[in-house]
Amino acid sequence: MGLGVAALALTACAADATASAQGAAGRKTGDVKTITLPGGATMEMIWCEPGTFKMGSPPTETGRFEDEAQHVVKITRGFWLGKYEVTQRQWESVMHSNLSRFKGPDHPIENISWHDCMTFVRRVRSEAKIPVRLPTEAEWEYACRAGSESAISGNGKLPDMAWYDDNSECQTHEVGTHTPNAWGFFDMHGNVLEWCADWFSVPTGDVVDPKGPPSGSFKMLRGGCWFFYERDCRSAYRLKRDPTLRNCIFGFRLACTDIPEQKTKPAQ
Length: 268
Ligand SMILES: [Ca+2]
Hints:
- With 268 residues, the chain is α+β, with helices and mostly antiparallel strands.
- It is 21% helix and 18% strand.
- The chain has a single domain (25-256), classed as Alpha-Beta Complex (paralog of FGE (formylglycine-generating enzyme)).
- The strands form three sheets. A five-stranded antiparallel β-sheet has the order 1-2-5-12-6.
- A hairpin with a 5-residue loop joins strand 1 (32-36) and strand 2.
């Protein structure tokens, strides 16, 4: 009897801990939701709970650059982020076009500018009624690291995590063909660089929900790509480029703060 009560108490404690970990909305980091895009293609998104992490690289990290000053970032709102880079299948479903250099329906879309990404975002918002957006740099790095403080997330070995200079044979590859990180994201390192929402700025201290300056000349790309050496595929690596530029190393993935239930599917 005594053991039974103890077991019940333990069960209750475990249930409380689980409920707390899942948050008020019943979601927990790593949960997956699938959305339907205009044109009918689907996209998997992974939930990231609010949290605090060290953004940037420590002075001891090999290959680091000066614009990676390490600072503490607090993310106060959870968000969804694409499990994979946006693919050509998904891009064509929404945009009815494809300028990619390396063709394949499950290869990442590339040769797109930041403004092209925003056109895609606006179409999904208006036609599928899902408030998607680009991730902030902070959200991107929070999801890339997934709790890791090392230069490369996941198991820390870039050849396992990424398509990059040493193994790509000078081209993109189908998304999701390497090892995911601890929260289930694929290709955060390598394959294509990923446009983020922010204008370029240099971090100057600890911040809450950073979104970058209100204007600027360069938008940010993160994660390195099939063409880059290992040092430029690190979690903290940042590349700034004119938002009008297209290049076969530029791609993206979508973020979304809240995904409403899709009662009717977007027009095919
Ligand atoms: Ca990538």
